[in-house]
Every structure is written in C-alpha cells, then in structure tokens.
Design brief:
Helix 1 crosses helix 2 (43-56) and helix 4 packs across helix 10. The N and C termini lie far apart (61 Å). The protein is α/β, with parallel strands linked by helices and 693 residues long. It is built from 25 helices and 19 strands. It binds adenosine-5'-triphosphate and magnesium ion. Belongs to the helicase family. UvrD subfamily.
C-alpha cells in the first residue's frame, strides 16, 4: 500500500512511524514488535495507529485481537481506530465501518473463547463467572465444610486465602514459595491451604463456576493442547497488547502459545509504570519479550512526551529517577510552562476536600470542564470526605475503581437471581437468592440447594422443595419466577421480559431487606436499563461480572455522556488516561507508600511507580496535596486513628525545587510574618518531619 494514502502518518514522529509501519509492505505478517517507552510518549496512540494502518493495508479487522487493561480502554481504542479510518472514508467507504470485534481485557476475551471452546477441554460451556467477592464466599463455604475455621481461630481469613490462591495461580509458583515471598505469616498452614484449595477447585468444578483466575488458567490450558492452540492462534492474524508491563506469567504464556514465532504480535508498555505485582503481574514479561523469539523482537523506543508540560514532566522524572532500578528513559516535552506542579499543605481531610472543590470550581470558571479534571488517590476510601463535600455542594462526579456499582448488596441480590436461573449448581448465587425470601434462613437454603444440586440435571423441581409453612406461599411465587427466568416454564423468551419480572419481584422484597430501600431503588432501575442493552442473559452476566460499570455519585443511574462531572479515581484505575488538571490526595507517608505496602523494598518500589503513574496523568496542572493530619481507618485490626503525617518519602527535600510549595488556606494577613520568618518556619517544619526518616 502507498503510505501517501495513509494520512495519519504525517502526525507521527519518526519512532512512532517506525512502529506503525513495521512489517508493512513486505508481503507478510511482521515478526514480534515491542514498543517500550515512558508515560505520555504515545504508546497507546501508536498502537491505535498501527491497528488502523494494518486494516487500511488490507488486514481483516475480524482477525485482529486487541488486548487492553480495561473494557473502557478497549472501547476508546476502537473509537480512535474508527476516527483514523474515517479519514479514508471518501476513497474507501467500507473502511469507515471496520469494527474490531475482538478487543477487550484478557479476562473478557478468555471468557469469550471459553464459551466457544470449553467443551474441548472437558468444561461445560454453560459456566457462570464468580467475581472476587463470590469467590471469597465460596472459599469460605469450603473452609467451613473442611472444618479449618473451627480448628484454629488463627487460620487465615477468606480474603487472605483467596489472595494466596490467586497469587499461586497467576504466578504459577509453588504454594510454599508464594507463602514465603508474600504471606510469611501464613506459612505454617501450607498443608491445610493445599487441602483447602483442592476442595475449592472441586467445588468450582461441581458447580460449574469459574473465578477470574480460571478464565486465564483454562485459556492457558486450552493453549497447552497443540491442536487447539493452533486453531485458536489461527483465529487471529494480529495480536496487539497495551500496558504489557502489567501482565502476569499466565498471560505471557497464553500469548506465546498463540503466536509461538511472534509473527503478528505487538506489545507496548513501560517498565517504570509496573503497578500490579501485588496481583501477580511481572515486569519480567516486558523485559524478557525481545529474547523470547528467534530472531528477537524489534524494539522501538519513544522519547518525546506529548502529554505533560515540561515542569510536570521534570517533577515526575525526578520522582522515578530515585527508584532503586534504573529506567533508562530520556523523556522530554516541548510543552513549556512557567507553572511548576504544586505541593499544597492543608490542615486535614476536610480542608483537603474543600481545597479540591474550590480549585475544581475555579478552573471551571476559567473554562476547563470538570471532566478535564481528575482527583486521584491511593485507596478508594480516601475519597470519602471529598465525596461528601461534592454531594453537599451538588457537584456531579464519577468514581472509578474501588467499590463498584455491582458490589452493592442490592445489585448483587438481583444478579444472584439471574445467575442461579442460569446455573442452578451455582451454590453461592442460589444461597443468596433463596434467602431473599421472608422466613427462609441459611438452614432451609442449604437444604434446598443440596436437593437442587443432587438432582441429575441440576434443577430439582423448585416448587416441591421443603420450606417452612409460613414461607410456602412466597416460595411458590419465587419458584415460578426462577423457572420463568430459566426458561423452564415453556413460556415466551425469558429475556429481557423475565428480567423485568425479577426486578419487580425484587423491588417488592426490598423494604423488608433494607432500611434505606428508597435510596437503593434507582440502582435496580439503572441495572434494568443496562440489561436492556444486552441481547441475552448470559452475555449480560458475563460482561457485567468482568467489567462492571463504576459506582456513581449516588443519584439515579450514571450521569449521561454529555453531562459534566468531576473524575474521581484510584491511581490504579487511572492508568493510561490523561486529564488537563490532576490533584493527588494524601501525598503523605502511610498513604503513598501505603502503610500496608511497606513490608519490603519491592513493595515500596511499586508504590513509587504508582506515584509516578499518578503524576504523569496531568497535562497542564498538577497538585499534590499534603494534609498534615489524616484519619486512617485500618482494615488490619489496628482500629481507626488520627495520624500526623509527613510528606511522602518519594519527594525528599532535594526534589522540592521541582515544586511550588503553598499552604492553604493562606493564613490571615496579620499572621503571615516576613518572608524570612516564614521560610524559617517552613524549614523547621521540614526538619522536624524528616527527623524520623
Ligand atoms: P501512558 O504511558 O500513560 O499509557 P502513552 O505512552 O500510552 O501513555 P498516549 O496516551 O498514547 O501515551 O499519548 C499521550 C498524549 O500524547 C495523547 O494525548 C496523544 O494524543 C498525544 N500524542 C501522542 N503522539 C503524538 C504526536 N506524534 N503528536 C502529537 N500528540 C501526540
Ligand atoms: Mg497508554
């Protein structure tokens, strides 16, 4: 193809262009390609250009697999590709309608492939998917059945058990090694944990449920069958992966099995932004990528940052330059600015919230929409005070990461109904669904589920189940509802009409289940609206479990697309994104690095990269906020407490030159003192803070 016919090439720099065009024009599919480069250098945008370029060059969009870190990122990438191809609409109208139908997360794509091919590895394709909370619940059930929790009160809690299990699966390391490395206080339970996990795996198989890790595990298992690996690999001519630094062993193994010689494989990432080691990701994947092939992969590096102003980039570079590992990247920006990022001292959480709100409104006055502004934090709970303040002042916001819409109890209730109808063997779903009825407790629920699971086809006649007399009438209506949802009553198609029935039934139960039912009701209506956009129950459940919509400002449903709202996000969920103005909350020791991540050097280094990720999200304005006092609510049994905080250790004194330091609110004029006395006070405070490092 003629590159003059590819109008987008002109907007790329030389290195980006090399990556986009790599392998083109040689008549075949190119060998493996790695783009490794710093934040904001255009990795994601280069990937989008490459996809458009491949399609314009004749590649079949249906045979392109694009793997991103979130569903949102995949959708955004799809839109970008379409925009690019739209430029050719005049001469190649069909290109403007090219759809990428294989784009999503590893887990989402894994689920889709398993629906198709699970039968070939002895799984039933009618599986349901457990989210993390369901998985923990099932593990807990098994734990009780096995009598571990009775044996010792000190036996690890369900969340810890799940974390250990997940770490072992994702790193493919022996249990002993995982315990030693990350959970040394659980090492004494190695034998018990082994037995527990064996029983957990059996329970999942018996109930036909898969947890998140299984989606990768079984995908990898499929790829271990040479014939199947070839077949699945051949579905895709091109496989492209963004954020490769945050993939784990399983994901790398899957990729290599699909494209053993690396032909058609492109991965991009930044080792300085690896922030998911705590979930089994390994930066080795990206570092070892070139040598995994013979001949080795082509490496392209990008050095120009197009996102941030020079002062913001300089500050972020200075933070990452202090890392224990060297990230040999020379990033520069042409976007000059006289404004350095600010280090803002505030008294406490309440003032922090007030400051953020005031800044956001002031910037909106200056013409910057709220959606161009984001507030980032290390842990989801850190935004609680701010959320209150925003609600009080009637400012709409959207929150990413942390507690999600689907984790709300009432939303889970409705999904449990659907899931149980979909898969009667799913014990966790059934247990939750059955107990929604008045007069039915865990005992009856357990009996019903035993009967249901014992039935040869996994669905004993529901109406005939033994329930207490007082609950009988309600039970019959419930049984009819589930049969309707499952399509077992021979009536018209159960979706989406059946779902509306389920919502109506559930709404009638709500006042008994929740004191604040009226507040929760809009979420159910929102769920119904989302459901109506899916063709069937199974797609709906799969998509929602894997990529739940985010929690919202609490008002009915999510804000409409063209509404303006402030973005709140955990640092982890902010990955890959950018905003004109970014405020980072609680840049103090104990928050970043987090108290719970200060066990070893590797964890502290990951926290440093996390701060780097947060800072490099900003295009024009960056505020790092330091409350002098903050309130920690500890999950680790230490109780809630107030803590006097010091500036994060990632910004030691010698980095201060990169920032403008301000105190907010400014002290009243009379108390300001002379410049010299103010400086003396600042120095003294800094000295006292740093005394204990
Ligand atoms: P991150 O590491 O944070 O994921 P990235 O390397 O993926 O960042 P992008 O998000 O692709 O970077 O790009 C950052 C910004 O730079 C985007 O706004 C993008 O449109 C812009 N950009 C990328 N390349 C160019 C270019 N050649 N000319 C102008 N702007 C560019
Ligand atoms: Mg990116």
């Amino acid at each position: 193809t003629d590159s003059a016919a590819m109008p987008w090439l002109a907007s790329l720099n030389a290195a980006q262009r090399e990556a986009v065009e790599f392998g083109g024009g040689e008549g075949g599919v190119a060998g493996p390609l790695l783009v490794i480069a710093g934040a904001g250098s255009g990795k994601t945008s280069t990937l989008a250009h490459r996809v458009a370029h491949l399609i314009a060059g004749g590649a079949d969009p249906a045979r392109i697999l694009l793997l991103t870190f979130s569903r949102r990122a995949a959708d955004e990438m799809g839109r970008r590709v379409q925009r690019l191809l739209g430029q050719l609409a005049a001469t190649h109208p069909w290109l403007a309608h090219a759809e990428l139908n294989w784009s999503g997360t590893f887990h989402g794509i894994g689920a889709r492939l398993l629906r198709e091919y699970a039968g070939r590895i002895g799984l039933d394709v009618a599986f349901t998917i457990h989210d993390r909370e369901d998985s923990a619940d099932l593990l807990n059930l098994v734990r009780h059945e096995q009598g571990f929790s009775e044996k010792s009160r000190r036996f690890p809690l369900k969340g810890t058990c799940l974390a250990i299990y997940s770490a072992a699966v994702n790193t493919r390391a022996p249990l002993a090694e995982v315990l030693q490395a990350s959970f040394p206080w659980c090492a004494e339970w190695e034998d018990e944990l082994k037995r527990l996990f064996r029983a957990y795996v059996q329970a999942k198989q018996a109930q036909q449920v898969l947890d998140y890790d299984d989606l990768l595990l079984y995908w990898a298992q499929m790829m271990a069958e040479p014939e199947l690996a070839q077949e699945v690999g051949a579905l895709f001519e091109h496989v492209l992966v963004d954020e490769y630094q945050d993939t784990n062993h399983l994901q790398a193994a899957i990729l290599l099995a699909m494209k053993p010689d690396g032909r058609g494989l492109t991965v991009v990432g930044d080792d300085a932004q690896a922030i998911y080691a705590f979930r089994g990701a390994t930066v080795r994947n990206i570092l070892d990528f070139p040598a995994a092939f013979e001949p080795p992969a082509r490496i392209v590096t990008l050095e120009q940052n197009y996102r941030s102003t020079q002062p913001i980039l300089a500050a972020a570079n200075a933070v990452i330059a202090l890392a224990a590992e060297r990230y040999a990247k020379d990033l520069r920006s042409d976007r000059g600015s006289s404004q350095r990022p600010r280090l803002v001292s505030v008294k406490d959480d309440a003032e922090q919230a007030a400051y953020v709100v005031e800044q956001a409104l002031a910037r909106r006055e200056d013409g910057l929409r709220l959606r161009q502004q984001a507030v980032l934090f290390r842990a989801s709970s850190y935004s609680a005070r701010l959320e209150m303040e925003l609600t009080r002042r009637n400012i709409p916001f959207v929150k990413f990461g942390g507690l999600r819409f689907l984790e709300a109890a009432h939303v889970k209730d409705v999904l449990a109904l659907l899931r149980w109808a979909e898969n009667p063997r799913d014990r966790i779903a059934g247990f939750r669904a059955v107990q929604l009825l008045a007069g039915i407790g865990p005992k009856t629920a357990g009996r019903v589920l035993d009967n249901v699971c014992a039935a040869p086809d996994g669905c004993a006649l529901l109406a005939e189940q033994p329930v207490p007399d007082g609950a009988r009438e309600g039970w019959l209506a419930f049984a009819a509802l589930i049969d309707r949802l499952a399509g077992r009553d021979g009536g018209p198609a159960p979706w989406p009409a059946g779902f509306e029935l389920a919502c109506r039934w559930y709404e009638a139960q709500m006042p008994r289940l929740y004191e604040d039912a009226p507040v929760r009701l809009p979420d159910i209506q929102q769920l119904a609206r989302i459901a109506a956009t899916y063709p069937g129950r199974r797609q709906f459940l799969t998509e929602l479990t894997l990529d739940p919509p985010s929690a919202t400002s609490g008002e009915p449903g999510m804000p409409l697309v063209d509404e303006d709202y402030l973005i709140l996000s955990t640092m982890h969920s902010a990955k890959g994104q950018e905003w004109s103005a970014v405020s980072v909350l609680n840049v103090v020791d104990g928050c970043i690095p987090s108290d719970i991540a200060t066990r070893n050097g590797a964890e502290i280094e990951e926290e440093r990269r996390l701060l780097y990720v947060a800072m490099t999200r900003a295009r024009d304005h960056l505020d790092l906020i330091l409350p002098q006092r903050f309130y920690v609510s500890q999950q680790q049994g230490l109780g809630d407490r107030h803590v006097y905080a010091g500036r994060s250790r990632f910004i030691p004194n010698r980095l201060l030159e990169h920032f403008e330091q301000i105190t907010w609110p400014l002290p009243p004029p009379g108390l300001r003192g002379t410049p010299a006395s103010r400086q003396a006070a600042v120095d003294l405070a800094a000295k006292m803070r740093d005394m204990w490092r």
